[in-house]
Specification:
Number of strands: 10
Order of helices and strands: HHHHHEEHEEHEEHEEEHEHH
CATH architecture of the largest domain: 2-Layer Sandwich
């Protein structure tokens, strides 16, 4: 094969390419053209394979001819592909265009769940009072959930926490008090924390009990703390959350991890119902001075430090605020209920 003969073949394929390119109007036909000319068995590849028929001194010039043809085909393919993509994008934009002069369509959006609203408000109240927010695992050990809180295995108080066990001594925590133990082990007094979180107990669900519920517990450990400080903190909380029209009182109670212990009651100062809240004294949580045995468990000297704790249920707070009479409504995800808040 002579060089001038190869030149003729190159010109022939170039002309054929230009004619075929003019008829390619979509991505599929463009791909077919690429395979037809640049594929392993394409026309350009076939010419490349014929270079071995040339004399050695002609192959350099032949390589320039063939590379020029291949470069032209490649460039043309790229340009046409870009043009087709632009055309497709313009068609898509034309179909998806919006008339901004038309009135908008209202679309409902979600909002914060009432229990989350209560939790965030409580956290904000106690943050203003100088407390940190702490969290811990929901799957706990018996040690943190019971033993470290002065509730050993034989203690009758364990009967009040009918628990969900996962494996061995692992269980779903029955209260958020284990977070207090974990935090006291990590830091030295003064300790001022609130611990919000989800808890689990084997309850028979009804209007006031659920197997999954939410608590927020407060802990303050420092030198010289007394029940008077505890009463002041709770009074500040009641005023901030329920309003100045409510008053608070303590009633004696028992908890294994506090001594002395108390129930916290509130009522409208006028003695009658206020808004959607009921008249008379209502319990909102439990409180008390941290038992010295609990302080010793975390290696705090009970002769030097005292502390107090206060726990309340978030569902209880929400039910009191909005006059809700069935705790199960919080977990049913009924939009008719949730959109009220």
């Amino acid at each position: 094969m002579a060089l001038d003969e190869l030149q003729g073949e190159v010109d022939k394929v170039r002309l054929e390419w230009e004619e075929a390119l003019a008829s390619a109007g979509d991505p599929e036909s463009l791909e077919n053209l690429r395979v037809r000319f640049l594929g392993r068995k394409g026309k350009v590849s076939a010419l490349m394979n014929r270079m071995k028929e040339l004399e050695p001194h002609q192959r350099a010039e032949a390589g320039k001819l063939l590379n020029s043809l291949k470069q032209q085909v490649t460039d043309d393919l790229q340009k046409l592909q870009q043009a087709l993509e632009r055309e497709a994008a313009e068609q898509r934009f034309a179909q998806e265009s919006y008339d901004l002069s038309l009135p908008g369509v209202w679309r409902p959006v979600g909002h914060v769940h009432p229990l989350t609203q209560v939790r965030l408000e409580l956290e904000e109240i106690f943050l203003r009072l100088g407390f940190d927010v702490a969290a811990g695992p929901e799957v706990e050990t018996e040690y943190y959930n019971f033993d470290a809180l002065n509730i050993p295995a034989e203690h009758p108080a364990r009967d009040e926490w009918d628990s969900f066990y996962v494996e061995g001594d692992l269980l779903l925590r029955t209260h958020t008090s284990p977070v207090q133990i974990r935090e006291m082990r990590k830091r030295r007094p003064p300790v001022r924390i609130v611990c919000p979180g989800r808890c689990y107990r084997r309850e028979n669900p009804d209007a006031t009990h659920a197997q999954v519920f939410h608590q927020l517990e407060l802990l303050w450990v420092e030198e010289g703390l007394t029940m008077a400080h505890l009463k002041w903190i709770i009074d500040e909380f009641v005023t901030a959350f329920f309003g100045a029209d409510y008053e608070m009182r303590f009633a004696a109670d028992y908890f294994p991890f506090t001594e002395p212990s108390a129930q916290v009651h509130i009522r409208p100062r006028s003695g009658g119902a206020t808004g959607r809240h009921h008249a008379g004294w209502l319990e909102i949580g439990g409180a008390g001075m941290v038992d010295p045995k609990v302080l010793e468990e975390v290696e705090y000297n009970p002769e030097q430090y005292t502390g107090f704790a206060f726990g309340l249920g978030l569902e209880r707070m929400a039910m009191l605020r909005w006059g809700i009479e069935d705790i199960r409504l919080f977990l049913q995800n009924d939009p008719r209920f949730l959109r009220q808040f």
